[in-house]
Amino acid sequence: MSSADAPYESIWSDLQGVRFTQDYADAGGIETRYLRTGAPGRPAVIFLHGTGGHAEAYTRNLKAYGAHFDTFAIDMLGHGMTGKPDYDYDMPAYIRHLIGFMDAMGLEKATLSGESLGGWLAAHFAVAHPERVDKLVLNTAGGEMVQPKALGALRNSTRAAVEDPSWPRLKDRLEWLMYAPSDVHDDLIACRQRIYATPEMQANIHHLLCLHTIEARQRFALSKEQWAQIAQPTLVLWTSHDPTATVEVGEHLASLIPGCDFVVMDECGHWPQFEDPETFNRITLDFLLGRGVPKENPVKRARRPRQP
Fold first, then answer.
1. CB 57 within 8 A of CB 273
2. pTM of the prediction?
3. Which residue, among 11, 4, 5, has the nearest Cα to 185 in the 3D structure?
4. Is 192 exposed, middle or buried (0-12, 13-18, 19+ CB in 10 A)?
5. What are the DSSP E strand ranges found in 213-258?
6. Architecture label for domain 20-288
7. pLDDT at position 303, please?
8. What percent of the residues of the chain are helix, what percent strand, and what percent coil, each to the nearest 5?
9. Residue 47's beta-bridge partner residues?
10. What pLDDT sits at residue 283?
11. What mean pLDDT, rounded, does the chain reach?
12. Cα separation, 116 vs 122, whole angstroms
């Protein structure tokens, strides 16, 4: 099928046929936007996005997860359409916000599935509040073996995209996350453009990026002892083309967590849950439902090569 014949991709096409709600909760005084699917009373899963992200990072996972779990994708503190208070969004602030959200939704315990910054938060949360966490999926997670060049690229590109939320700049920012730039569709760019152009985001981008310095990463890094304290069943999922860290970084992180499973998804970048949702959903749901995970890479798929 040629690109001209390819079906138009959009957030709404991802959500067609999905029973979901969009709403806001008061999470410790912070108005917090979330998407929810699945049946209340089932075990809960909370999806946590990365730096500069929003709940739409998980629109391609809601249907599969909703068949098994009470599933939430949230806009984290200071992100998306969630409130942006005038203080730094450091790790303790993210933890307080997540506690507030769980309390607001009446969730005593949840599985946390976090990508990048969201994975870093999920790991910190499991150490600080182990009684509130069922299982963990750490997806290209931050917080271990800082890569200064990648950290700088993420910080600078995010700040530039907020200061100038033009279509080309936002397109470049999103394409940087993906193995195949063609995975970035117009609807995703438009969604992020609307968020980044808000006065609240413009005024508080420095708070959002406070963790994206070498000093902050060192200050809030989990120690080897803390990684070893994670007792929940944990899956570390990495990708072959993550722009922020190599497979070896993910392997090292997994080695620090007792009994951790480790899987690499081929031909994906920093958003495997969006780039290849079929494989991501299969691997992570097999893990969460106790069906096991592959010990080697999933079968490779034919994908368009990364453009220069």
1. yes
2. 0.94
3. 11
4. buried
5. 234-239
6. 3-Layer(aba) Sandwich (3.40)
7. 45
8. 45, 15, 40
9. 73, 113
10. 95
11. 92
12. 10
* DSSP state letter for 82: S
**CA 90 – CA 173 distance, rounded (Å):** 23
d(CA 97, CA 195): 20
Question: Residues 167-201: pLDDT tens digits?
Answer: 999 999 999 999 999 999 999 999 999 999 999 99
The CA distance from 60 to 159, in Å, is: 27
Distance CA 93, CA 124 (A): 12
Closest C-alpha to 61, from 302, 298, 250, 284: 284
Confidence of residue 90 (pLDDT cuts 50, 70, 90): very high
Condensed to tens digits (0 to 9), the pLDDT of residues 262-275 reads 999 999 999 999 99
Q: Please, are residues 249 and 145 in contact by the beta-carbon 8 Å criterion?
A: yes
